[in-house]
Design brief:
By secondary structure, chain A is an alpha/beta fold. Chain A contains 10 helices and 15 strands. In chain A, strands 3, 4, 5, 6, 7, 14 and 15 form a 7-stranded mixed sheet that branches. In chain A, strands 10-9-8-11-12-13 form a 6-stranded parallel sheet, sandwiched between helices.
């Protein structure tokens, strides 16, 4: 049997458990040119919150009654004359929250398990790593000596953003919630400064951590953090809008009231969607893997076990009870 | 005697008449290397509202008790061995709201009255023209075929922005308040579409006027207009933040709640300050004057008479009771 998670409701604020429901189907049989993938890992991403809204954003909404969209890593258990993949291949792609995925292989690619563990292919060598790499280099355009601030700094994207900025010679300040995360960023990842936003002194702490202002800000959270950072940006500063996790479950989005700081400082705020760089993923994977090999870049995954624990694991994205990439291991 | 307007208060919301006070001093005598300029024209600009706030923005605040800052055009009535200017020269610069300005000439430049009337040197060939030119070309980076929206479209900056965009082959939509302005934009300046925001259907009107979305938005007003435009932008759209006249007199600035449209659309919001292009003003003046000569670009000034009418004329900036460049003629 194939256990699947279906989208049942479109929540306005925070999704409740009955937003989704499990179902089981007979495990399907691949036909000519098809694959059956047994999924091992399900990726949990803040973007999931947006995908269940009715409105199309940068990607189609998940339809009610459909399997919940998710990035996956799994193994081909059956292939019927597939031109590209064979049984045993480990594939990354959009497999959805289910144990088995039947597909023609479109949107899937083979991962190199000798290069790194499958989990790492879902984190630093996967979508979060790609987002960090192209976001901070192509949109943030960091230069050596810049003061770079990143929010959601202990997350899958933020932690890689900060480490890349360190590698490129920047002074890196991370904003995260709680002592454990701050300790991790400073002691394990070598961030220059960390700010625990939960301590409630963001404005003051930011001033102290960035005495010479902020050149590049990589925003994963939006809301009050973005608004406060805007008061400390330098001339020609660049703000990368990657996400706004503080706002995804709000009925009304909080806009940055200090946006006129962009005018005063001739600064830029630019949005990014990682898919635009799809053709260049291989180049990023090579570079990120190289940095990992050299010990300059650390990947961290927070893995929970069992497809039935999807909802409580999903909640960790927003409660912040996780460090690094949040993954559900459903291999059993 | 030299009548001068001094800044007396720092208003939080809309400035009242006693924000400023007139005084008179003995008309000063220029000494070695100095000039005395008799001012003819005083420029009224929305930016004045920002200059009287306590906080430094892109320029120092006007100090309490100081002559109110203003752009001016006037004639040198006395020059004592000045290396650059002589009696009779018409000079543009920061003369302030006063009848006579004593100066060493720094920050002033001679205008060519054969090229255009002094009023035009204060509008389309002056700061508003420079702002429009560099803002829409260098920051907006318009390309032929783009749909360009400009707010404050009947203002000194907006009207030139729209006309430059037309010259460059764009489809131009102006947002302005009231029938007279809309008629002027469409019939006199040849805008493709105009929207009267006072009719209260901005969202619907914008959708109708921009069926293929918005590629470039030049924002002079902020607030609800900016927020609404954000819902209609295209992929890779560019938003030029030039001003936010709807917000200057508000205690709390309204941030753009739809700013995540920047993310979804990989769009950019960038602030500009015209002073950054000072070295290139001459190139813009030549080009704008050429377009005027060819009949492609029209300049319009709204002139009121008498320094004693400063306050009521200033109020027109925010009530919208003016078209084009607002000028106070104090030549008498």
């Amino acid at each position: 049997m194939n256990k699947q998670l279906l989208l049942m409701k479109r929540p306005v604020e925070f999704p409740s458990e009955d937003t989704w429901a499990f179902t089981e189907e007979q495990t399907p049989e691949p036909r000519e040119g098809q694959l059956l993938i047994r999924q091992h890992l399900i990726s949990l991403d803040p973007a999931m919150r947006g995908w269940i809204n009715a409105s199309r954003s940068y990607i189609e909404a998940v339809e009610l009654g459909d399997v919940m969209r998710a990035g996956t890593v799994g193994q081909v258990v059956k292939a019927v004359n597939h031109p590209k993949f064979k049984e045993g291949d480990m594939l990354s792609g959009w497999g959805g929250v289910q144990q088995f995925t039947l597909t023609d292989g479109k949107g899937f690619h083979k991962i190199n398990t000798e290069l790194a563990d499958p989990k790492v292919h879902m984190s630093t060598l996967g979508m979060p790593g790609m987002t960090a790499y192209f976001g901070i280099l192509e949109v943030g355009k960091i230069k050596s000596g810049n003061t770079v601030v990143v929010s959601g700094a202990a997350g899958a994207v933020g932690s890689v953003v900060g480490q890349i900025a360190k590698i490129k010679g920047c002074r890196v300040v991370g904003i995260a919630g709680g002592e454990e995360k701050c300790h991790y960023l400073k002691e394990d990842l070598g961030f220059d400064e960390v700010i625990d936003y939960k301590s409630g002194n963001l404005r003051k702490d930011l001033k102290k951590a960035c005495p010479e202002g902020i050149d590049v800000y990589f925003d994963n959270v939006g809301g009050y953090t973005l608004d406060t950072v805007l008061t400390r940006i330098n001339r020609q500063a660049r703000i990368v809008i990657c996400g706004a996790i503080s706002q995804y479950n709000e009925k009304a989005i909080q806009g940055p009231t200090n946006y006129l700081s962009l005018l005063v400082n001739r600064a830029t705020m630019e949005g990014m969607v990682v898919f635009d760089y799809a053709k260049r993923y291989p180049e990023a994977v090579v570079q990120l893997a190289q940095w990992m090999k050299e010990g300059k870049l650390k990947s961290r995954e927070d893995v929970y076990v069992g497809i039935e624990h999807f909802y409580e694991t999903f909640c960790r994205l927003f409660s912040g009870e996780k460090i690094g990439k949040l993954i559900l291991d459903i291999k059993q």
